[in-house]
Amino acid sequence: MFAYLAIALVVGVLAGRKGKGGTDDFVAGERAFGPLVMYFVVGATIFSAYALLGTPQRVIAKGSDAFYVLAFGAVGLVPLFFYGARVRRIGAREGFVTQAELFAARFESPSVSVLMGSATLIAFVPYLVIQLKGAGVVMHAVTGWPEQLGAGLVYAVVLVYVLAGGVRGVGWTNVIQGVVMLIAIWVIGLWLPTKLYGSVSAMFDRVVVEHPEYLTLPGPEGKTPIARYSSEILMSILGFAMWPHMFMKCFTARSARLVQLSVVFYPSFLFFILPLLFLGYVALLAGGPSDDSVLLWLVDLVQGEAVHPVLFAFLAFAILAASMSTGDALLHAGGSITVRDVLLPLESRPRVRGLLRKLRGGEHATLREDDRAQTRAMRVVVVMLALVSWLVLGSAGGTSVVDLLLLAYAVPIQFLPVVMFGLYWRRANGAGARAGLIAGLGTIFALFVVQKTAPGLAAVINPLELEIGLIGLVANVVAMVVFSLRGPRPSAALLERFEL
Amino acid sequence: MTTSRSKWALRLSVLYFALSAAALVWPIYPWLGNRIEPRVFGLPFSLIWVLGVILCNFAVLLLLYQLRLIDADEPDHAGPGGLA
User: Fold this and answer.
1) pTM recorded for the entire structure
2) Best A69, A70, A94, A206 residue to mutate vs chain B (most B CBs within 10 Å)
3) A212: closest CA among B49, B44, B33?
4) What SS3 class is residue A248?
5) What is the pLDDT of residue B63?
6) pLDDT tens digit string along A81-117?
């Protein structure tokens, strides 16, 4: 276990030493990721500790509702195939490294970037907390330490290689983590059903006889009505490619074709969900617990066998790899986004400039002019982000994090109009983008607060219990279209820069 | 780039992916996919249906990529910095 952490550390730091060290390199790796690294960067950052621990758990709790991950993954990344090549090209030509930067330029509006950047940060924290929790669960099982201590140790390692290596560190460690995870999950997912029930097929024979309701919707006790399942899938499909850390992958690829290629091969990562589903059904037949310890509980089914310690180690590696590969990408993206999308645009205001100067202790060049200082600021933010998430993990326990995740998943879908209209609608302009973002984000935050503080009122406003992200999206699109049409037409020169 | 061939490919492929998304949700999924029988390789049909959609999407994406139909009028491996 500790050897594994050490290897991740060394590779991450070594990879980082190859670059020239400017901000462009820290954030976008000088746009030089080859096919292998791109493949694992795209795949591994998606398959988080949440997918790993949550998928078998979901089978036990809700039956075939767990196929949800496969269903939205089948289409979720496809939009990237269509706009990814163009985004890669524009990014390289104009020197963009974040999603918000591109759209701030397209809409000639720094506030677009500040809005997108701050909303992203709010969405990242609960997402990170879940990853830390995954690491904590494993370390607790292995060493007996409290979750927060274990998570702290693992993320100290992650911090070191993210800080030292920037996006290169993230890239090469993701390759190792991806390979570990794929092998471990397939081996355990096939071996365990075979060992216990004879074969995967024989296991499903038993599920059909004993628990047929777990194989189709609406699932046990009708927990997942088809309408609810459908709305969740549509939400996830629309929001998936909008996550800023996903979008930023376009900028790190060596070529535009490569962005498309990684979308083509992405489904091979989905097949890795399959053994997790098998494991879920194994646990169902064997009467496993329905919380996030189920995966480790499964391994203990074969306690006493010679392979038990090997299996356990494999699984612990896989969960750790999943947690780290998602966590490092989030931390890295969070640092880049805070500095480039929020601090730099705000720096142009005198009051903020004064404050930043004070924080940095005395007279300096502005961040915009000082590339080294930008990279330093990103590192500070990365550490702070990790620290905040770690503290939330300690103080909040489980339930409020799940609440926050609801809000987190409603955020990226609010970027959909900005991205789609920005790339494909010549008439879309800054007034529209600002209005859309404010309307969309405002709606979801307001609805979230109402839901938490006054559930009765929320039921009146939202009787069908629609996803809050979806309601925000409607407000967002309407506002963006209306204000774009009322505002000025973007200049031809601007449109040409964005290949419109 | 805006030849009529690639324009049609774009329209058709967007239509295809919209349909494939529709196949995974109401009303197509409960109508066709959401059942246990027939089992394929021992897996329930509800799962096979979703896996089938993934395979089809993979095939279509691979075709679009190989034929360079979507926004791909550039070299396979530009150097660092791309077109700059």
Assistant:
1) 0.85
2) A70
3) B44
4) coil
5) 92
6) 999 888 988 998 998 989 999 999 999 999 999 999 9
Q: Does the interface ipTM go beyond 0.90?
A: no
Q: Which residues of B touch A219 (CB under 8 A)?
A: none
In one-letter notation, the amino acid at residue A433 is A
Fold of A2-398: Sodium/glucose cotransporter (1.20.1730)
Neighbours of A457 (CB within 10 A): 11
- Give the closest of A85, A88, A264 to B61, CB-based: A264
What would the pLDDT profile of B32-48 be if each residue is shown by its tens digit?
888 888 888 889 999 99
Backbone angles phi, psi at B43, to 5 degrees: -85, 150
Sign, CA torsion A176/A258/A119/A406: negative
Chain B CB contacts of A73 under 8 Å are 54
Cβ–Cβ contacts within 10 Å for residue B72, how many? Answer: 18
Q: Is A498 helix (H, G, I), strand (E, B) or coil?
A: coil
Res B82: pLDDT:
35
Cα distance from B21 to chain A (closest Cα, Å)? 6
**How far is the alpha carbon of B8 from chain A, nearest alpha carbon, in Å?**
14
Could you tell me if A84 and A256 are in contact, meaning their C-beta atoms sit under 8 angstroms apart?
yes
Instruction: Tally C-beta pairs within 8 A across A and B.
Output: 148
The DSSP annotation for A51-99 comes to: HHHHHHHHHHHHGGGGGHHHHHHHHHTHHHHHHHHHHHHHHHHHT--SH
Task: Kindly list the domain boundaries of chain A, sorted by start residue.
Answer: 2-398
Q: Specify the amino acid at residue A396.
A: A
List of long-range contacts for A149-156, beta carbons under 8 Å, 24+ apart: A151/A390, A151/A393, A152/A390, A154/A5, A154/A320, A154/A323, A154/A324, A155/A327, A155/A386, A155/A390
Residue carrying the six token digits 């502005």: A366
